[in-house]
Amino acid sequence: MAWDAARVTEVVAAIRRYRELSEGDRAARLQADEYWWAIDAVLVDTLNGTIPIDAIDAMLHHPDADNDFRGYLAAGPIEDVLIDHPATYGSAVAALCREDPIWADTVKGIWLNAQEWAALPEELRQFIPINSISSDSTPAKKTRRKRPSKRQDSQPRHP
Prior knowledge:
Elements: H1 5-22, H2 26-32, H3 36-48, H4 53-60, H5 67-84, H6 86-99, H7 101-106, E1 112-113, H8 114-118, H9 122-125, E2 133-134, H10 150-154
Parallel strand pairs: 1-2
Helix pairs in contact: 1-2, 1-3, 3-5, 5-6
């Protein structure tokens, strides 16, 4: 996909519309599917490591990019490129964080486990707060002690 200014504007508008509709009633959520192409385009290029950092920067600074949209970018494309392609994107993101308070603030919204954080260039780690590092990449499973049902518990036990 070509990531020129017109395409970035189109993608930002579609993602915002998708996110609005996906929080609505069933009819709105079904309508949101019309805008999935934009999320898919960003996701594919992000996971492949082919999205230009300039495209992410343009989305981050787009006039329609509010704090909610920046949060989406932090937890989505920016986090993904830093996890999947730290060598490709890490130094560029660090440079942008040094120069631009919006970038520095946005990367505070990403969550990495210790291994992912360690894979980042040292110059970038200073911008990612230590409290966003989880000890494991998978959420801890809550273990629940199984109890017999009341009916099972009330039945007499035979020797």
